[in-house]
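tmp note - Short-chain alcohol dehydrogenase like protein
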Amino acid sequence: METGLNGKRALVLGASKGLGFGIAQGLAEEGARVAIASRTLEGSKAAADKIGRDVLPFICDTGKVDQVDALVKDVTAALGGVDILVLNSGGPPPGKAQGVSSDQWRQSFEAMFVNLVRIADQLLPGMIERKFGRIISVISSGVIQPIPNLAISNAIRPALVGWGKTLASEVASAGVTVNAIAPGRIATDRLKQLDAANAERTGRSVEDVAAAARAGIPAGRYGEIEEFAAAAVFLASEKASFMTGSILRVDGGQISSTT
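out:
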C-alpha cells in the first residue's frame, strides 16, 4: 500500500522505547522525516541511533511546560513544520481510585492531557495552512473498559478522547484528521511492569498473571509493537484521509464492547 508518507514530517512523543519507538520506526521506514522525544536526551539519542534514517532526537518531559514549549520551537526549526503529531505520554503508576493525592491527580493531568493539547495547539495552525495534518493519540483500552488497578489512566485518558473527537469536527474540512489508538496488551516494558504489579497485588507469580491475561485475549497472545505501530502508520497515511474522530483498537479482540 502506498502511504504517501515520504517526506512528511513527524513528531512522536515518548519514543525512546515501547509503542512510541515502534511508531517512530514505522513512520521512518515509510520515508517520513521523524523527530522523537523522551524524558532524557540520552534515551532519545539511543532510539534515534537504532532507527537510523536521520531521525532527530529531542528531550521533553510532558509534565514540564518549559520543555513542551522548547520542543515545539526546536522541532519546528529543525523540520520546518510538523505534518504528523503522535501524542504518546508515559503511563501513570498503577493503583486504585481511592487515596490518590490531589497533587498526583494534577501532575498526571498536566502530563497526560493539558500539555499534550498545548503541543497540538501550537502545531495545528501549520497543518491547517498546508491542508494536511494527522494527530494521533495513543490512549488505552481502559478508555473503553476500565482496567483494574489503573485508576489514573482510566480517569484521565478519556479526556484526550473527548478533546480529539471535538477537535476532529473543527479541522476536518482543512484536511486534518484527529484519531486515537487504543492498545490492548502489547508486549512492552510497560506491560511487564503492570504484570509484575498485578502479581504482587494478588500474590501470584508473574507467569500466572501473564497466562491468565493471555487466556482472556481471543488471539491467545500479547500483541507485538510492530503490529500496533502499523495501525498508527495507516492513520498517518494519505489513505486514512476519511478517518477522523475515531478510536482504533489494537487488542487481539480482547475488548468485547461495541461502543
